[in-house]
Write a structure and sequence with these properties.
single chain, 2 domains, nine-stranded mixed beta sheet, 12 helices, 28% helix
Length: 475
């Protein structure tokens, strides 16, 4: 047995997965759908075996790897988890209390513990758009979806991604027809945890395909509800994005976990064609651990990727962003602004690279990471990187780590503003521009409300400060 295979065998979470997948021979949920043909099922069985072999070759991540250097993944791997055989119960009262039952789009695909939930979904008939769970999508569009699955089974270098390829249950499939504009009504994809009394690992795959010159706004939520004290949970998502020529996709990703031992991982593979635009906003809130692995390819001239990110954590909350944007052709753009606000003993790691290929002349790329520490125990690591093989480009990157500016605090206090009010205003102001890519009014309001709550404020920084006894004290 090779060293990596031995390491794989020793990891408790892998032992559970081996029992669930190898011994039970459980296929990904799409394979046992009545509508799925026998030929397609045979291909899926082969892909599952390929992914398991790939997993054994890769081995589990360790802190010796740069992408996992600061992530305490060993705490996750030391837990025994099960793959849910059926969804748990969704606690509607908790969702309502957290403001997550608000309808965010006319079309909604909801999943509980990796299983499609028709009761919590809304799929009105619309011209120009297809929105299905992937179990139905594979039965109808296997010719276009299976090659994506096959490529990932053979090529992934991430152990959790390989686990996902082998064991994923269900997910969302969204296709927008060419020349259709669906940006006015958002499409809502929501993934919830339901089991509250056992440690579960759920794996899902999702597909978003934008036809040529189409437009759409999509919000993707991954929400972890409370667990019994001391329990752990893993929610792992893979999202494939294809933005065809001239299309524009506004995509918002929201992580929010209510427990310190909740893990949410997102692996995003995106392709942007000529004159296409991907506006990506990522938001990480809550008390758990979030890790995003983004690999975005600009494959056509005039293509553009804009990525804004915001992390707000308290207590032991942690976020890790591992991102690579590849400029593969001339005359493309990417602009990245990622911010974090960290209180108590929370942590954030930014590890991002812009790659400019040899022939990608006239590339215009910027990358900026800014971190605001509200506690002496909070930690931020930042590694913005450029890898440039072309000689006619405009590229810049930078990073900052610091606290609230005392001069700005003094200025506001000298104008009669209580110190806590000033602190609230400056903190919210730091976060606010991370939402500038979200032009959909309802989604912007929803995200603003979630951010204000994550900062411990009420309707607004001023309203929060006026209700606080500290703020009423004279400066």
């Amino acid at each position: 047995m090779s060293p990596k295979a031995a390491q794989l065998e020793k990891a408790p979470v892998l032992t559970v997965l081996e029992e669930s997948v190898l011994r039970s021979k459980r296929l990904p949920l799409q394979a046992d759908a009545p509508e799925t043909s026998a030929d397609t099922q045979a291909v899926m069985q082969k892909l599952q075996a390929t992914a398991i072999e790939r997993l054994q070759t890769i081995g589990m991540p360790t802190k010796k790897q740069e992408a996992w250097k600061y992530c305490p993944v060993h705490t996750l791997l030391s837990q025994s988890m099960v793959l849910p055989e059926k969804p748990g119960q969704l606690d509607a009262a908790l969702l309502k209390e957290a403001g997550h039952l608000e309808p965010l789009g006319q079309t909604r695909l909801a999943f509980i513990d990796g299983y499609y939930s028709p009761r919590n979904s809304a799929l009105p008939e619309q011209e120009g758009i297809i929105a299905l769970d992937t179990r139905q999508a594979y039965a109808q569009y296997s010719d276009s979806l299976l090659p994506v699955w096959q490529q990932q089974a053979n090529a992934t270098t991430d152990a959790f991604h390989a686990m996902n390829v082998a064991t994923h249950t269900n997910g969302a499939y969204v296709y927008v027809d060419p020349d259709e504009d669906k940006s006015a009504e958002a499409i809502h994809i929501a993934c919830f945890s339901g089991h509250q009394t056992e440690q579960t690992a759920t794996f899902q795959q999702h597909h978003i395909d934008m036809g040529g010159r189409s437009k759409a706004t999509i919000i993707f939520q991954c929400l972890g509800l409370p667990l019994d004290e001391g329990l752990h949970r893993l929610m792992h998502q893979v999202l494939y994005i294809d933005v065809a020529e001239g299309a524009e996709l506004d995509l918002i990703l929201l992580h929010d976990d209510a427990i310190p031992n909740g893990w949410q991982m997102m692996c995003i593979q995106g392709n942007v064609a000529a004159d296409a635009v991907l506006n990506l906003t990522t938001v990480s809130l809550g008390l758990g651990t979030a890790r995003d692995h983004l690999r975005l390819n600009i494959n056509g001239e005039g293509g553009m990727v804009r990525h804004h990110g915001l992390t707000i954590h308290q207590q032991q909350g942690q976020s890790y962003l591992h991102c690579q944007i590849n400029h593969l052709v001339p005359n493309s753009q990417s602009h990245q602004l990622v911010k974090s606000i960290l209180d108590d003993a929370s942590k954030n790691d930014f590890d991002a690279t812009i790659v400019v290929a040899k022939d990608a002349q006239k590339t215009d790329a910027t990358q900026l990471n800014k971190n605001l520490l509200l506690s002496d125990k909070a930690r931020a690591w930042t590694r913005p990187q450029l890898k440039i093989d072309a000689d006619d480009v405009k590229c810049a990157h930078g990073a900052t780590v610091g606290q609230l500016n005392p001069e700005e605090m003094f200025y506001l206090a000298s104008r009669g503003m209580p110190l806590e009010t000033a602190r609230c205003l400056l903190t919210y102001g730091f976060a606010e521009d991370a939402l500038s890519l979200v032009t959909h009014a309802r989604l912007h309001k929803y995200l603003s409300t979630q951010i204000v709550a994550a900062l411990g404020q009420t309707d607004s920084p001023i309203a929060c400060a006026m209700e606080c006894g500290t703020c009423k004290a004279p400066v």
